[in-house]
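FYI - complex with S-adenosylmethionine, inputs then prediction.
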Amino acid sequence: MKSTGESPDAKRAKIHEKPSADALLSVKKSKKRTISIAVCASMLENLKGEGSKHRVIAQIARAAAIFRVNEVIVVDDAYKNPGFDSSKDSNLFQLILEYLDCPQYLRKSLFPMCLELKHIGVAPPLDASHHVRMEDEVPYREGIVTRVSLGSVWLDVGLHEDIKIESRAEVKQGLRVTVNMTEKSIVGPDTPRKKDGLYWGYRTRVAKSISEVIALCPFEKGYDMTIGTSERGESILELEALGKFRHLLIVFGGPKGLEHALEQDKALTQVKEPKNVFDKYLNTCPLQGSRTIRTEEAVLISLSALQKYFWCS
Ligand SMILES: C[S@@+](CC[C@H](N)C(=O)[O-])C[C@H]1O[C@@H](n2cnc3c(N)ncnc32)[C@H](O)[C@@H]1O
C-alpha cells in the first residue's frame, strides 16, 4: 500500500472522523443499554500458585472491557469444601476488578499497597477508553479530589497539574469522581455513557446468591433480560433473537455449574431447574471439543457469541 506520509495519530483521527453506520448504532444503543455479568467466586477455588487467581480475574476484567460490560458481580457462592473460604476469594475478586478498572494515574492514591496486590503485575492492563493518557484531549476524565476550599475543588485528573473547578457538590478529599473537562464540572459516573455513548468501565459488587444478584440490580426497574449459561442450556445456534432489553444480565457458574449455585440459594428453594430462573438458559458453545469449559473461557465465548444481540436487536 502507498504511504500517505501521515502520522499514526492523524490516521487514527481520520478513522474516527466518519464512524460507520454500525458504530453509530452501537453508540446510540449503548447510551440506553447496560450489560452486566455475574460470575461465581468458586471459579477461583482450584487455582494454586502465585498470581494464578490474579491472572484469571484479569481475564474476566479484560473480557468485560472488550465487550463493554457495565457491571461485574461476584457471586459469593459458599462452597462447603474444607479450606475454601469463599468470602476471601470474593473480596479478592472485587479488589482486583476495581484495581484494573481504575486509571493508572489514580491507583497509587486509591489502592494502598497490600498483600492482595502483591501479584498484580501478572495482570495485563485493560486499556479501556476511560484510561486516558496525559496528552489525550477528551471530554471526560476520572479524577480524585485533592483539596476542597470555599466552593473550589482541586482534582488530580492525570494531567501535569491538578485542575481547579468551582463546585457546590459535597465532595471530600480522596473521593474518586468523573469530571466533564469541557464544562469543568463533576458528573455522575454513568454520564459519559448516557450522554455520549462512551464505554466508561464497569462497576462491581459482591452478591451472596444469584437471587441477590437479581434483587439488588442498581439500574432503574431492574434487569429486564436475564441469561443463565450452561452446557445443558438451549443451543445458541437455535436462538433466533434475544428480544429488546435495557438492562441485560448474564450469569456464569463455577466448577460445579449454576445448578450448584442455585441449590445453595435459600430464596430459590422452590425452583427446581435453572431454566426457570432466567429468561434464557443458553449453551453458548455447542459441540465443544473439550469436556469442560472453564468459567473464564465461558465468559469470553458467551460474550462473543451474544455480542450481535447487544447492539443490533
Ligand atoms: C466449568 S463450567 C461448569 C461445569 C459443570 N460441571 C456443569 O455441569 O455445569 C463453569 C461455567 O462455565 C459456563 N459454561 C461452561 N460450558 C458452557 C457452555 N457450553 N455454554 C455456556 N456456558 C458454559 C457455565 O456458566 C458454567 O457454570
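The first strand starts at residue 34 and ends at 40. The pocket of S-adenosylmethionine is lined by residues 229-231, 252-253, 255-258, 283-285, 288, 292-295, 298, 302 (CB under 6 Å).
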